[in-house]
């Protein structure tokens, strides 16, 4: 299944500003199928593991503080070229540089509060999906649980 799944997370700022519905419609209209989804507030220790690849970056502490500041919507998405196509849909990390019509251009406030996260590689997509979801929380198109 590598290459066909990616992970996304609607961040606390976009949740608080009630953009969940708009963002999910954009994801749906772009042809992604929702394999798994949850509405959850991360604890600091969990956020530190999720964003551990950024642990040496100067913005790491602020990133952790922000991501635990409220609930997030986490989801596994399925589509051909899922990682690449989702990144195109969400736009660049810095919303001031994001293309018109992208999720970040429409809903992000700043690079720190950039509305959504999207996996940057197939490898990280698998790691991030596994971080949030067990196999009996993932569903095939016909509604059956997906096998490992
Ligand atoms: P995300 O896609 O969730 O991946 C890591 C996050 O760190 C990123 O979105 C931004 O919100 C944040 N980030 C990345 N680069 C910077 C930066 N230069 N300054 C502040 N925050 C950043």
Can you offer a commentary on this structure?
By secondary structure, this protein is of the alpha+beta class. It has a domain of 99 residues: Nucleoside diphosphate kinase-like domain (Alpha-Beta Plaits, 2-Layer Sandwich). It is 37% helix and 16% strand. It has seven helices and four strands, in the order βααβααβααβα. The chain has a four-stranded antiparallel sheet with strand order 2-3-1-4. The protein is globular and about 40 Å long. The relative contact order is 0.23. Adenosine-3',5'-cyclic-monophosphate binds next to loops.
Q: Which architecture of one domain does the CATH hierarchy give at level 2?
A: 2-Layer Sandwich
Fraction of helical residues:
25-40%
Tell me the CATH superfamily of one domain. Nucleoside diphosphate kinase-like domain
Order of helices and strands: EHHEHHEHHEH
Task: Name the structural class.
Answer: alpha+beta
* Unique ligands: adenosine-3',5'-cyclic-monophosphate
Summarize the structure.
The protein is an alpha+beta fold and 148 residues long. It has helices spanning 12-16, 20-29, 44-50, 60-67, 82-90, 103-107, 122-132; strands spanning 5-10, 33-40, 72-78, 116-118.
What is the topology?
Blueprint: E1 5-10, H1 12-16, H2 20-29, E2 33-40, H3 44-50, H4 60-67, E3 72-78, H5 82-90, H6 103-107, E4 116-118, H7 122-132
This protein binds adenosine-3',5'-cyclic-monophosphate.
Adenosine-3',5'-cyclic-monophosphate (CMP) binds at residues 54, 59, 63, 93, 111-112, 114, 117.
């Amino acid at each position: 299944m590598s290459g066909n799944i990616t992970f996304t997370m609607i961040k606390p700022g976009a949740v608080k500003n009630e953009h969940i519905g708009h963002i999910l419609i954009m994801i749906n209209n772009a042809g992604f199928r929702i394999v798994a989804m949850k509405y959850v507030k991360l604890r600091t220790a969990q956020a530190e593991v999720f964003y551990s690849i950024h642990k040496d970056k100067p913005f790491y502490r602020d990133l952790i503080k922000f991501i635990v500041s409220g609930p997030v919507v986490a989801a596994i998405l399925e589509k051909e070229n899922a990682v690449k196509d989702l990144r195109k849909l969400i736009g660049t990390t810095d919303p001031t540089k994001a293309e018109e019509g992208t999720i970040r251009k429409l809903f992000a406030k700043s690079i720190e509060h950039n509305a959504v996260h999207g996996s940057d590689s197939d490898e990280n997509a698998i790691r991030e999906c596994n971080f949030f979801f067990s196999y009996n929380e993932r569903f095939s198109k016909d509604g059956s649980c997906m096998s490992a």
